Amino acid sequence: MLFILLIGSKAFALTDSTGLTLRAVQLNLSTRGAGLEVAGGFKQPLVLRAGVNFITFQRGFAIKAEDGTFIQTDPDVASVSTHLLLDHYPFRSRLFHLTAGLEYAWIQRYTGTFYAHEAVKLGGVEMEAEDFGNAVLGIRWNRLKPYLGVGLKRDIMKRQMAVGLDVGTWYMGSPRLDLRYEGFLETTTIDEQVKQVEVNMRSYAFYPYLALQLRYSLN
Amino acid sequence: MKKLLWGLCVVLVSCGNPFEDFVLGLKEPIEEATVRIQFNLPENGKLPQNLEFSVEGPDAGKVVTNLNSRNFKISREGVIILAVSPEFTPTPAAPVEFTVVARAEGYLKIIKTFRFTGKANQSFQAQLVKEDLSGSLTTFQAEIKNTTYQTPDPTQKLLLTVQGNTIFRDRAGAEIPGAKELVMMRYDHKTAKNNLPAGGVAANPVGQDGKPLENAFDFLQVASLAFVQISSREDSRVVKTLDTPLQLTMELNPEMINPLTGARVKTGDMLTITSYDTDTGVWKDEGETRVVSGTGGKLQVSFPVPHLSFWMAGWRRTLCKNGPSFIVNSTYSGVDISFLAQLTDAASGKVIREYYMAVNNGSQLTISNIPAESEKVKLVLYDYSNYHGGNRTAPVAVSQAVSLCGTSTVNLPAFKVTLPRLVEIEMYTNCPAGQTLDKATLPAQMRIQYSEVGKGAWRDAGIVRREQHIAGTYRLKFGARYDIRASSDGGVTWPYQQKDQLINKTRWLIDVKTFGGKCK
Predict the structure, then answer these.
(1) Which residues of B touch A132 (CB under 8 A)?
(2) CA nearest A149 in B: which residue?
């Protein structure tokens, strides 16, 4: 994909009709996963960046309960999002920038499934795997997320290759929890407690963003 | 700029503990106006996989599970407890009535209507019976399209003739239009007596005119027992009456002995016809019919059926409605096991019936609905309990002789039965020094069962409640090993187990710290 972008950007005029000049493509490795961005300048000291991030994680693991018994956990994390960021370079050095922008998550799936292969011991009592049942906990945030941050990278690269840094936060809104279950949880007050957890997590509305970029100049 | 960076810093670290004030408690089961439905487990100890269960009828919206949920799920042990929602109070003037429908492919459809006029609890054994069975029990299920239906047993058929122009009506007398489903079951003379509804004792029967009969009765022999159910395919409304009666024909086994003559049943023998309404619990004398020779010379009885319920043909015997009461004299109280008592003929010593009776001082066993075949009887008590066995040959007490029929009261001394060691069960949380258990945080109830280790044959040990979190039982044997399990939902599910436990303490602790038992 990077190759296509590079060829495309070299093959066509790098300035479009809006005056936007494509300056760089960059690979992102960030707390939002892996991603790709293109950056373009249209009016100094502003740089516009558009990109995509994706992350996926499905590897299951076991949580130790009591007396050598385990609860199996199968996470299902998948996020694919696109974003548009505007960098503002306030200083003459043109290295430090402030950034604001928006992201839209096309896919956002954050669930964990909990179950047991064999009997589980909890709180001094034992539960057969069938009685333990299973629980699927999902968490959702707003699909549209504003961003605010700072960064270190030059707006006009002096070399063909360089690195960049972004630090900031996405505002995701308060999370909504979704718990579906069968088994012993059906006899408990877990539904009320999920509401309590949701209240406790109101402040989990900001997602920290740390991104390292490998940049390729198109100039 | 500084403000911006500071704001950024704050939002990155401002998350609190998501599990603050998180306390996982147990739901409190509804204990009034409930119906406990127990399904049999016909698929090698499991329910059929395709079993569909629903609650129908105009008051279906007032029904919840005993955990106040609308998720009607049958436990893997075949139990579901339904309840009238606490938002409604059933009264005789405003009863709550609903119908439970259960169907599984290859099984007869089960329809049962429940009516609540107060807070009393009910129970129902739901039998999942395979369709198209042949043998002692023969079954049939079909949509009503023709006029004649028969069970698949080639030797002793049950035949049903439906008049084409009849009108089907529900219990309220309203016509039930549209497509209908028919379910038929027939037990032969070998199995019928053991499968009679309500134990086969017509305690308060009515005559053909609907007026109460003077005497209760049961059956010496049942030649054939039939169950016929017709219901609306659309809404499972059950047909109760028909404007033109059905005709029911029962083929009989010629090897069957007529208990009145001692000879094989033959044409000309008279059989009594009885019906039992499962909704109202009313036994009705439907008259007599004569055994005739039917198609192919087969013996049969045939009679009109104007209302649908259980119908049986056989020979009855009269029962004494009211018998003597035996009152226990002992030093015991709170004993939750019972001891074997035999009602014997005072003259011959022949055992008439066996009971397990409580031995707490003042407890009472009242004999009722016994065949009037003895004049005087005695009650003989053995040191043999329903939980631990014992000696069932040497009596420990014998009452004085009393008349079998007619009310009388007799004392029975029960001082000599042997009680095992009392074991107490306690809901418990290990509190740190200086703190005590906050009983208000205990689960509302925990039902406890036990089984011999690894056997899975569970028996009740008792119930501990928030208000009384210690319960004593004589059912556990001190020094024995048991699997123990607990249920917090009234006995629907039993998720909490303690396996292979040695009962070597007089107080058995059920740790509930995970489910709300807090210290203060």
Answers:
(1) 495
(2) B8
- The CA distance from B1 to the nearest CA of chain A, in Å, is 9
CB contact under 8 A, A187 and B488: yes
Q: What are phi and psi of B91, to 5 degrees?
A: -135, 165
DSSP state of A123: T
Count of alpha carbons within 13 Å of A161, Cβ hemisphere only? 2
Query: Which one of A69, A186, A204 would you mutate to disrupt binding with B, by most B Cβ within 10 Å of its Cβ?
Result: A186
Domains within chain A, CATH numbers bracketed: 2-217 (2.40.160.170)
Nearest C-alpha in B relative to A208? B12
Residues of B with CB under 8 A from a CB of A: 1, 4-5, 8, 11-12, 14-27, 67, 69, 71, 73, 76, 486, 488-489, 493-499, 510-515
- How far from the centroid of its chain's Cα atoms is residue B362's Cα? 28
Confidence check on the interface: ipTM exceeds 0.85, yes or no: no
SS3 content of chain A, % helix, strand, coil (to 5): 15, 60, 25
Kindly provide the residue ranges of all beta strands, DSSP E only, lying in B399-505, ordered along the sequence: 402-403, 409-413, 423-428, 437-438, 445-452, 459-465, 470-473, 481-487, 496-502
Chain B hits for A121, Cβ within 8 Å: none
Residues of B in Cβ contact (< 8 Å) with A149 = 8
Secondary structure class of B388 (helix, strand, coil):
coil
Cross-chain Cβ contact B24/A188 below 8 Å: yes
CATH number for B137-318 (one of 2.40.260, 2.60.220, 2.60.40, 3.60.21): it is 2.60.220
Query: Does the B34-126 domain belong in CATH 1.25.40?
Result: no
Q: Are B286 and B311 spatial neighbours (Cβ–Cβ below 8 Å)?
A: yes
Q: Which residues of B touch A189 (CB under 8 A)?
A: 23-27
Question: How confident is the model over B168-206, as pLDDT tens digits?
Answer: 999 999 999 999 999 999 999 999 999 999 999 999 899
pLDDT, tens only, B331-361: 999 999 999 999 999 999 999 999 999 999 9
CB-based contact B302:B247 (threshold 8 Å): yes
Is the preceding omega at residue B371 within 30 degrees of 0, hence cis? no
Per-residue pLDDT of chain A (219 residues; tens, 9 = 90+): 344 444 444 433 344 556 678 889 999 999 999 999 999 987 778 999 999 999 999 999 999 988 889 999 999 999 999 999 999 999 988 899 999 999 999 999 999 999 999 999 887 778 899 889 999 999 999 999 999 999 999 888 888 999 999 999 999 999 999 999 999 899 998 999 999 999 999 989 999 999 999 999 987
Amino acid at A184: F
Q: Look at residues B170, B187, B413, B429 and name the one whose alpha carbon lies nearest to residue B312.
A: B187
Query: Is CATH 2.40.33 the classification given to domain B423-519?
Result: no
Residue B463 CA, chain-centre distance (Å), reads 20
Residue closest to B63 by CA, chosen among B95, B39, B92 = B95
- What the block records as the tokens of A138 is 């999902």
Torsion region of B413: left, alpha or beta (phi above 0 gives left; psi -120 to 50 gives alpha):
beta
Residues 6+ positions from B425 with CB-CB distance below 8 Å: B448, B461, B462, B464, B470, B471, B472, B473, B507, B508, B510
